[in-house]
Amino acid sequence: MRITMYELTQQMETQLDSSYSDLSNVQEQLSTGKRLLKPSDGPVDTANDIKLKGQLAEETQYHTNIQDGLNFMNVTDTAMQSMETIVQRLRELAVQGSSDTLSSSDRANMQPEVDQLFRQLITLTNTDYNGDYVFGGTQSKIEPFPVQSSTASTAADYAGLKMAYYDGSGGVGVAAQIRNGFDNTPITNILPGSFKLSIGNTNYVEGADFTVDYVNGTITPLNAALAANMSPGTPNYAAGALKMTFDYVSRGKDVFGNTVGNTGSVMREIANGVTAQINIGGDELTVNSQDGVDMMGAMIRFEQNLMNNNTQGINAAIGEIDDTNQSVLSAQTQNGARINRFQTTLTQNENQNTQTTGLISDLEDVDMADAATKFSTMNTVYQAALKSAAMTMQHTLADYL
Amino acid sequence: MSLFSVLNVATTGLTASQLGMDVAGQNITNADVDGYSRKRLNTTASYRSDGTYGQMGMGVDVINIQRMRSGFIDDEIRDQTQQVGYYTQIDQTYQNLQGIFNEPSTTGLQEYMDQFFASWQNLANNPADTSARTMVKTDGEILCTTFNNLSTQLSNARQAMNDQITQDANKVNQLTKDIYNLNSEIASVQSTGQNANDSLDKRDQDMTQLANLIDFTSQENSLGQVTISTGGSLIVSPAYQQNIETTTSTYKAADGSTITNIGLRFADSKINYMPSSGEIRGYIDSRDQAIPEYQAQLDTLANTLVSKVNAIHESGYDLNGVSGNDFFDPTSTGASDIKLSPSIESSVQNIAAAAGGQTIVAPPQNLVLTYGQQPEANLGHANVNQNSVIVTTAGGTTLTEGTDYQVDYQTGDIQLLDAGYNGTPLTVTYSYTAGSSQGTGDNTNALAIAQLQEQMTMNNDSLGNPTSTFDENYASMIGQMGEEANEAKSNLDSRTSLVTQYQNQQDAISGVSLDEEMANLVQLQHTYEASARVVTTAGTMLDSLIAMVIT
After folding, report:
1. Which residues contact B502 (CB under 8 A, 6 or more apart)?
2. How far is A67 from chain B (nearest CA, A)?
3. Residue A264 and residue B359: Cβ atoms within 8 Å?
4. Is there a single domain that holds both residue B56 and residue B82?
5. Backbone phi, psi, residue A141, to 5°
6. Is B456:A279 a contact under the CB 8 Å cutoff?
7. Largest CA distance in chain B
8. Taking CB atoms and an 8 Å limit, are A40 and B482 in contact across chains?
9. Is residue A131 located within the same domain as residue A152?
10. Do B32 and B172 reside in the same domain of the chain?
11. Co-location of B210 and B149 in the same domain
12. Buried b (16+ CB within 10 A) or exposed e, B123-150
């Protein structure tokens, strides 16, 4: 076999090329720290890597979702704890108020404190997290239990939602329903103590001229003069300048005036395919699921009984406050159980995250010790190849002739 | 037998040595020239018949200058060179594709798909939040742009193949013209019985270059002229050369864009030509198979994404309580033109995060029911929520459902079961499900879209059930690309090493060894000097002889 210069150079070139390209591969791996730089570096590993990265992105998002859910539920929990404290205080007041040793004025004097506590309770049912009402269900931008003021004094006020009027009177002693001037719906849950009725400068006196059923929103005239001013059907402001102002607890309404439900489930995805509810509906919180006692009604009746010096009614209120307490407590328990679940899932999620990150690193990352060893071996081989090439190519027979 | 014949013998030696040095000099000076084959001076002993001594030497005869080359190895090299040409292009294409998709990385399509779905999850956490909505829109746009860019790059890569094919066709024509011209040169030399060594070298080189471009078969006639045919047609013969020319065909792609394909045919016969190997076939296969394969997979991914996301988005409700809007433009046909729908482009308010089915609490109704009439009354709303109906008398008694009355929840019909309440004024409260948005705080729809990421959406099995998620589908596509890139690379490597091996074999025969030529030079120098000495010696003898005669 003849060996020629050309062949020798070709072979050297090929060998140097291949050593150099190996060297540059390892060098690239060392400098990037990555083993997989393009799919052909490991097609199966790359496919797995992509899947795992997708999984990691999902898990990271679940982590965010769980944290967000936890924040939401913690806000809910704090609100319910405050409600709990207020309900306890209200119970103490009710027990105190039911005592026979108190005079009627003592009881009447308790009403403003109860009223303040009640308003505080209503504020808490309208607690928001990040602009979302936590007890508003899926209608989280609509305040679930807004306190509205009816301040109607002129006919023009009928255009507004806050308008109210009585819709009729059969005369002295007959109850008339107070209605919303805008959509004609009955108004209920009027806050006791806020109700004022006047014609011109004449104030009518509750108890003497009229009585009010605050829960059902009816007014009963006690004398003919007032009854005459309450003609059926149409508002009677223009004629008699009959002016009625009061605050009442309304229900959340959408832009079309429909009363919206507040028990829609707000869900968070906390793991692959697992969604969990994070909210307590306003009605779940305020209405006792066993006997249907409504917190708003219970509180209004309690106040009214205090004002009316009705000991028997106050005794009944204790029971209703207990019912309210029960519904808040059960909502709190449910929320607490959910918080626990989220926290457990959070821990699992973090473990899973660590594991996935580890798997990705196993697939992608270079074993530095191994790569460095390879690099130095290849470097030696490359240098040896260079040196031998240089020495072989230097001489021909011509040097010695 | 005379002294003069000695002079003649020595002279042939001088001539042969000089010629030998010519050849060695040519070999040395061309040692580095590509395609140069070593030449060898073939000599033989010259003799005549002699009556007394049988055969007498008459010096040295130069037979010819021989080109040292194996035609068989050349054929093998050309066979493999076609494959090398083909796989070089295929390999290049896959390197390109891998570069275009740029995976695994943090800037590939995968990353942006993950971001897109994450932003839907984020919207699910804050359904009414404008910034969360803007994020969904932005990430949607980035995803669309990424799809568009990938598609454009693939189209460009495809288009680039056409230019290459045109260039290569020109190269083929240049080479066949050269070979045709060399054919006549070779014939004119060889018909005189001489060797057209350098023209042969040049032609062998041209043929190897041609083999890199296309596959062909060749035959050599007695005068050393070759006939080359490819695809069943003659492109070079001793008397004929045929060009190949390009044809252009266009068709409309699904997205309405025009796709141009460059084809080949024989210039004279107008028969369509498709090489079965070589660089040109590499370009054609890259253009018609490798790249469209991934374009199609990318389009399927984009289309599935559009249809799945839109299907859910259409059923949802936006911030304005409007339903039926698309998220992606439904007229898009694939990765090339995927974009957001005009309604989403115009306002992020139109992103449908909420589901339908709003619960509305109906105002209390006063009813007087007549026992036995069917249906007795309607509550005024269909889709009444179960367990939401409460019927009370004016006295405050709550009626029991099932014993006192019954409700058809679907139609809202109410009917008395207890005759005792016949004609009694009753108050009914209830809530019902309206066909409108569940509210701006509802995230049902956003969550459903976000969950698409982990659902089986693609690669339907024989029963039509999807078997992989978007991520899995994309991952297997990239995996496939890597496998195919490796296959092309290993094919290329094995063919290249075969060519190298054959070239080494050829080089063992045709390569110039400087040491060998040096040794030859020394030998020739000595032969020359010795022949010259023979001439001098014969001269001296002649001198002596002449001196004798003259004196």
Report:
1. B73, B76, B77, B80
2. 10
3. yes
4. no
5. -95, 0
6. no
7. 180
8. yes
9. no
10. no
11. yes
12. bbbbbbbeebbebbbebbeebbebbbeb
Which helix (H) or strand (E) covers residue A28, if one does?
helix A5-32
Answer yes or no: is B60 within a domain: yes
Q: Is B30 helix (H, G, I), strand (E, B) or coil?
A: coil
If asked whether residues A133 and A154 sit together in one domain, one would say no
Phi-psi region of A292 (alpha: psi -120 to 50; beta: other; left: phi over 0): left
Rounded Cα distance between B357 and B360, Å, is 9
* Portion 142-181 of A in contact with B at CB < 8 A: 142
**Do the bridges between strand B405-408 and strand B233-237 make them parallel or antiparallel, or are there none, so unpaired?**
unpaired
CB contact under 8 A, B518 and A396: yes
| Cis peptide bond prior to B375, omega within 30° of 0 | yes
Residues B494, B521 within the same domain: no
Q: Give the domain CATH number at A91.
A: 1.20.1330.10
Residues of B in contact with A10 (CB under 8 A): 500, 503-504, 507
Q: Give how many domains chain A has, as a whole number.
A: 2
Q: Per the domain annotation, does A391 fall within a domain?
A: no
Q: Are B152 and B248 in contact, with CB atoms under 8 Å apart?
A: no
- Same domain flag for A246 and A151: yes
User: B523 and B492 in one domain?
Assistant: no
CB contact under 8 A, B104 and A50: yes
The whole domain housing B482 covers 75-242+276-310+468-500
- Chain A interface includes B447 (CB < 8 A): yes
Number of independent structural domains in chain B: 3
Question: Tens of pLDDT along chain B (551 residues)?
Answer: 577 888 889 999 999 999 999 999 999 999 888 889 999 999 999 998 888 888 888 899 999 999 999 999 999 999 999 999 999 999 999 999 999 999 888 889 999 999 999 999 999 998 888 999 999 999 999 999 999 999 999 999 999 999 999 999 999 999 999 999 999 999 999 998 888 999 999 999 999 999 999 999 999 999 989 999 999 999 999 999 999 999 999 988 877 888 889 999 999 999 999 999 999 999 999 999 999 999 999 999 999 999 999 999 999 999 888 888 999 999 988 999 999 999 999 999 999 999 888 788 887 788 888 887 766 788 888 888 887 888 888 777 888 888 888 888 888 888 888 888 888 888 888 888 887 778 888 899 999 999 999 889 998 888 888 999 999 999 999 999 999 999 999 999 999 999 999 998 998 899 888 888 999 999 999 999 999 999 999 999 989 989 988 76
Provide the domain limits for residue A139.
52-143+268-365
Interchain proximity B439–A273, CB inside 8 Å = no
For residues B292 and B143, state if they share a domain. Answer: yes
How close is the nearest chain B Cα to the Cα of A2, in Å? 5
**Inter-chain CB proximity B511 and A6 less than 8 Å:** yes
Q: Please check whether residues B49 and B88 belong to one and the same domain.
A: no
Using an 8 Å CB-CB cutoff, list chain B residues near A50: 103-104, 110, 471, 474-475, 478-479
Backbone φ and ψ for B320, nearest 5 degrees, come out as -90, 10
Per the domain annotation, does B368 fall within a domain?
yes
Structure tokens at A32: 């990037």
CB contact under 8 A, A41 and B453: no
CA of B30: which chain A residue's CA is closest? A6
The reported pTM is: 0.82
Chain B CB contacts of A60 under 8 Å are: 118
Quote the Cα angle for B275-B281-B285, to 5°. Answer: 130
The Cα–Cα gap between B545 and B5 comes to: 15
Strand boundaries in A278-395, DSSP class E:
none
Optimal mutation site among A138, A256, A278, A280, interface B, most CBs of chain B within 10 A: A138
Contact call for A2 and B509, based on CB within 8 A: yes
CA angle A142, A146, A149 (to 5 degrees): 135
Q: Where are the beta strands (DSSP E) in A117-217?
A: 128-129, 132-133, 147-150, 164-166, 176-180, 196-199, 202-204, 210-213
